[in-house]
Amino acid sequence: MALKGINAYKKGNLKQDVSTADPHRLTLMLMQGALDRLAYAKGAMERREYEAKSEYLSKATAIVMHLRDTLDIEIGGEMAQNMYALYDYMVELITTANAKNSLQSIDEVISLLTPIRDAWVQIPESAKQEAFEAQRQKHAAV
């Protein structure tokens, strides 16, 4: 019973965090959310809880697809194209992990996504503002 209250509290905090987060923070939250779901899926797989495993992997897939689909290829150029291909590969690995109960596939996704998340954390504030401004100007011109 206490866990339900804790989970409700966490959901409330998450909604508040999302509503006040800038685009950089939202992306970071998505990356961390995907990594969390992958870790939960590994645990479920190890415990032979296949329904939970599938649910966590489905959520991780949705997050990675969202990260992929929100890349701005025009502004990001070759780097964004490379990230798109990498996210696409991660989706394939997650699909394989789900179909074949492959811990190795999950580990590979984690090993690919973790350094991206870590690098994202290190982005200087000035670069965040510059990217936000470029995005704002692009949408203002449309």
Automatic annotation (TrEMBL):
InterPro entries: FliS, FliS_sf
Keywords: Bacterial flagellum biogenesis, Cell projection, Chaperone, Cilium, Cytoplasm, Flagellum
Keyword check for Cytoplasm: yes
Places the protein is found: Cytoplasm, Cytosol
Entry keyword annotation includes Transcription: no
A Pfam family recorded for this sequence: FliS
Signal peptide, first to last residue: none
Recorded superkingdom: Bacteria
GO CC terms in record: cytosol
Biological process (GO), any one: bacterial-type flagellum-dependent cell motility
Major localisation: cytoplasm
NCBIfam families: fliS (TIGR00208)
Family according to the record: Belongs to the FliS family.
Protein name per Swiss-Prot or TrEMBL: Flagellar secretion chaperone FliS
Lineage: Bacteria, Pseudomonadati, Pseudomonadota, Gammaproteobacteria, Alteromonadales
